[in-house]
C-alpha cells in the first residue's frame, strides 16, 4: 500500500504544473451553463492526448470518459467534475483573469475540471494496478436549474457500465490548502425557488381607502411566512426561507395592481420540504385574502438534499487519513447551499467532499461566488493525489 501511495504522490507532483496550466486556461475562458462548447472541446483534446476513450455531447456539452483496469466489469467508480461558470465580472488582477466579460469561474469549477483531468492522467498510468472501471463525468450546468446532473442521469451516465459508487470534490475556501472535509449523511440542502404574485387594486397613493394595496399585503406576507421557520419547523430541522426580490412597480403616489416576491426555501428533509411548501402556500394565500387581495403561488422544485452515503463516506474518510495527515481531514457541518450532485446521491452511493484552498499568507480568503474568489494552486496537487487514491481504494475494497 505504501508503495502505491508513494507512486501516486510522485505522479501528482510530476503532473501538478500541467494541472495548474489546465486550470488557468479554463479560468480564462469561462462559459455559462450549457454553453460550455469550447470547454468541452478542450477537455476532449486533453483526454485524447492522454489516450483515454470518451464520449462527447452527453447532456449537450457533457463528456464521459472511461479508464478500464483489469476485469473492467467487476466494479465501477464514477468521478464527477462540473464545468460551467457564473455570470460574474471577475475582480482579480492575476495574469490569467477571465477574458469573457461578465463570466467567471467564481465557484472553482475550473479547478474541479483540471483536477479530474489530472486524476484521469494518474489513474490511466496506474490502470494495471486495479480491477474495474473508472467513469469520468465532466458535467455541464451545475449552476443553473434543472442542473446538468439530472440530464446526464436521464441520458444514462450511471449505466453502461453501471456505476457502483460516485465521488465528487468541491473547493472550499473555509479550509486551508492541503486539508479536506467530509460529512456522512445529509450534507447540503434541498433548494426550491418561491414566486409569489400578490394582487390587489391599484390607484392614487393619497386615496388608499379606494385601493387594495398589494405592497402592504406583500409586506405582511413576508412577515407571516417567517413563522414557517421560527414556529413550525422543528428545532432539529435546519430550514432557511428568504426573500431577496420584492418588486412593486408603482410610483411615489401610485399604488400598483400587484407586487411580486421571489425567494428560496432550503431544508434537509424531503417530507418536511413538502410540508413546508404547503404551509407557505396556505399562509401566503390566507394573508392576502384576509386583506382583500389574492396571492398566486408558484414553487419551483430544485435540487434535492445531498445525501452522502454513510459507508462510502466513512471509507473515504479513512482512506483520506491514509493519504493525508489525520489532522488534515475534518468533519463538516450542514451547509445550506445546494448542489446538483445531490441527484447522483439519490441514485447510487455517493460521497461529496471538500478541498481546502485557503491561504491567508497569500491573501486567498474570498468566498465562493465572489468576484475575488481564488485558490492556492498547491491545492490541486492534494486534489489529484487524493481523488486518485480514493478511487483505487474503493475499487480494491468494495
Give the termini distance in whole angstroms. 16 Å
Class computed from helices, strands and strand pairing: alpha/beta
Assembly of the depicted chains: single chain
Runs in which pLDDT lies below 50 for 5 or more consecutive residues are none
CATH topology of the largest domain: Aminopeptidase
Strand order of the largest sheet: 1-2-4-3-5-16-6-15
Helix proportion range? 25-40%
Tell me the strand percentage band: 25-35%
Just give the CATH class of the largest domain.
Answer: Alpha Beta
Major sheet, described briefly?
8 strands, mixed
Mean pLDDT: 97
CATH architecture of the largest domain: 3-Layer(aba) Sandwich
How does this structure look, described?
By secondary structure, the chain is of the alpha/beta class. It folds into 2 domains: 2-188 and 305-396, 3-Layer(aba) Sandwich (Aminopeptidase); 190-301, Alpha-Beta Plaits, CATH 3.30.70.360. The chain is 35% helix and 26% strand. The chain contains 10 helices and 16 strands. The strands form 4 sheets. The chain has an 8-stranded mixed beta sheet with strand order 1-2-4-3-5-16-6-15, with helices on both faces. Strands 10-12-8-13 form a 4-stranded antiparallel beta sheet. A hairpin with a 3-residue loop joins β1 and β2. The model has no long low-confidence stretch (mean pLDDT 97).
